[in-house]
Amino acid sequence: MTQSTILGRIGQLVRANINAMIASAEDPEQMLDQLVRDFTSNIAEAEEAVAQTVGNLRLLEEDHQEAKAALTDWGSKAQAAARKADEARGTGTGADAGRFDELAKIAIRRQISFETQVQTFETQIAQQTDLTDRLKDGLNKLRAKREELVMKRDELVSRAKMASAQRQVQEAVRDVSVMDPTSELNRFEERVRREEAMARGMDEVAASSLEEEFASLEDADTEAEVESRLAQMRSGA
Question: For residues 111 and 71, is the Cβ–Cβ distance under 8 A?
Fold first, then answer.
């Protein structure tokens, strides 16, 4: 994956509206777990990209230093060859002067070549430094965002557990309410009252039976008295 692609993905993740995603998710906890995994994976890729970018930057800096050293060295060689050419001309040795002039020109050409390299390396170093800084900044933001996600996930899990515990308490209270011992006592009291009423009814029934028996006895005595008196009347008594 290219560094620009990683930067693009970092930007998308950093700009992601986590709260909106949580609000629209069917299972927020599962979504947060997936997001944490995505961020962890992208952080690993970003860390690898930063390491590669920093490594490339250090190589460019080394090449830049080598080019600068070569630039200085060929500049020194050009100056030395030019001095030799001047000395040879001073001593009337034209052939040596011409040879040293050619060497000075070769050294100057190499010097110019390394000047170009130094400028190129400086441009590349500036670009690589900017890319490295942006990747490091994105990596730090990804890490912060991941920590935020972990905190939100932990908070959500905690709230879910608390809500579950509260629901269980409410269900237990409801069950206790349904099985309220006072309601059982009320039903038992009502049953006792019915039994007591039945007992009173039976007493009344028994009492009425006795009254009827005594009444029948009284009727029998009356009839006997009637028969006795009737007999007396017949006998003329």
Answer: yes
> DSSP letter string over 171-189?
HHHHHHHHT-HHHHHHHHH
Percent of the chain whose pLDDT exceeds 70: 81
Exposure letters 105-130 (e unless 16+ CB within 10 A, then b):
eebbebbeebbebbeebeebbeebee
The per-residue pLDDT for range 100-145, each reduced to its tens digit, is 999 999 999 999 999 999 999 999 999 999 999 988 888 898 888 8
Residues 1 and 45 sit within 8 Å (Cβ to Cβ): yes
Q: Which two tokens stand for residue 190?
A: 């009502």
Q: Using an 8 Å Cβ cutoff, are 142 and 42 in contact?
A: yes
Please report the pLDDT score of residue 82 as a whole number. 93
How much helix, strand and coil, in percent to the nearest 5, is found in the chain? 95, 0, 5
Q: Can you tell me the distance from the alpha carbon of 153 to that of 26, in angstroms, rounded to the nearest whole number?
A: 15
Q: Is the full-model pTM beyond 0.70?
A: no
Residues 6+ apart with CB under 8 A from 40: 146
Residue 12's alpha-carbon distances to 19, 27, 32, 145, in angstroms, are 15, 22, 16, 12
Mean pLDDT of the chain: 81
What is the C-alpha to C-alpha distance for residues 74 and 70, in angstroms, rounded to an integer? 6
Give the type of residue at 2. T
